[in-house]
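ERR on first pass: missing label on line 2. Operator R.T. fixed the label and resubmitted. Corrected input:
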Amino acid sequence: MVVRRAEGAVQARELADDGTTVAGTLVPADRFAAFVAGRERAPVRWVWDDTTRWYPALLEGGVRIERCTDLRLAHAVLRRSPFVDQSLLAGEQTAGWDALQPVTAADPALFPVADPADRLDPVAEHERQQVALAASVHAQRLALLLAAESSGALVAAEMTHTGLPWRADVHERLLTGLLGPRSSAGGRPPVLERLLGEIRAALGAPLLNPDSPGELLRALRTAGLPVTDTRSWSLEQLDHPAVPALLEYKKLSRLLQANGWTWLETWVRDGRFRPTFLPGGVVTGRWASSGGGALSVPTQIRPAAVADEGWRFVVADVAQLEPRVLAGMSADAAMAEAARATDLYQGMVAGGAVAARAEAKVGILGAMYGGTRGESGRMMPRLARRYPRAIGLVEEAARAGERGEVVHTLLGRGSPLPAGGWARRPVDPGEPPDDGGSAEDRDRARRAWGRFTRNFVVQGTGAEWALCWLADLRNRLWRLGGAGALGRRPHLAFFLHDEVVVHAPEHLADAVVAEVQAAAATAGRLLFGSFPVDFPLDVAVVGSWGDAG
DNA sequence: CTGACTTGCGCC
DNA sequence: AAAGGGCGCAAGTCAG
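pass 2 clean. output:
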């Protein structure tokens, strides 16, 4: 069913099996939610321009849908995929689809005025996408990616709708305990005020504002300290009476600015934290977020996320997702064998690849992030001998990036092309060949891009695993849960790259644990088939997020 | 004054 | 001498 906004109404067109549209219906806007609810009684896929423009209003109306095709997200994937013949996506509206942005504002209006999306034809775009998909040598993988991406869009909207249960009173108690009572008119709370006094005295700088990196750096140097920046890690290396107070000040000041009383007032309403999640918001395919720094909620304040009375959180995260994904996508049997253990790094020790867990960890992280020198560099030859396919895959991705080529994830998400002049091929004989500065600058940029593409393939495939996990779990939770609206059943409340928080009635918590596990197994099979790589979860049933892990 | 950039730090 | 990827956010800084 393809839907399109049409002047206070919705035009809905049935899709035939061959992809052509048949009957069309015009549904008044105020009856659309009921129309959708009615159609959901039988299996149906909603094809629409962009989930953020449709689903929030349906959820407000109490309607949950089973599946959709999000043309905006699918378009973005297909346009960059090296598995796709780009000429098949060309059309007069291609630029319009390229430019389409999600709507993030909590705008209750289903039909915002002058939305550029309204000029786009979803039927034509859907048809182009289907043709491009069918012609691809990796149609199945891409189809899985598009389905997972669309499912992710539904999850994201649902999580914003239900929100993460958040106890303002617990949060405030936490803040007061660490900072002292909130001070009025933008002044520092008492604990920060006291630390400020200590810092100023110890540095002999009575007017110092430690929030200014420049001022602080000058004050430290005047006090005779050999520093070039003011990062906590650098300050920790110094032996000076001002340092402990300064480190404490930085930590608490960060808490106050990022997740203090202002954050609480801005982002927590009616006992729920409701950030906006942006599926596909990161080039690798990871989600981004906006509002309240959702993907970096510090562990410090997680105790304020408390399940409702009679409800529990099921918190699950994948141990060492990315190295496991690397083992799977490279079909490296030796690394997959190490991944059979709950702790992959320990498994590498047991397999004889390295002598100690710490070596395994720093070596693998270096292989995935591009740390080729120092401790991790020293491990590389040994890892490459022991895990030739896994290490070979990331090395090849790095080399391809250094040559300015596109790399791709397992399911076919393509990396962007580098923007710098170092990689640009001459387009026109008259064009200057390069704008990249000195040879060293170009080499540095080339290596940096190689580190990016090296990480892209692993981080991106990890994101694909997580999307499949999330999508399958969403359906399992729905089937688990009796009747009623989304928020009255077990539901996903939060997602952070490789971790989910499910909010569920207490009596269903154990069943949720089983579903979370089953969904992880499904995700592994969807991506890697019968190749034996495990994705063990750390799962906790808790009353508060702070009690997990 | 606004907007763009840098710095630093939280998360994965 | 150091040399790791991806983000969002807030404050400071600086240019216009």
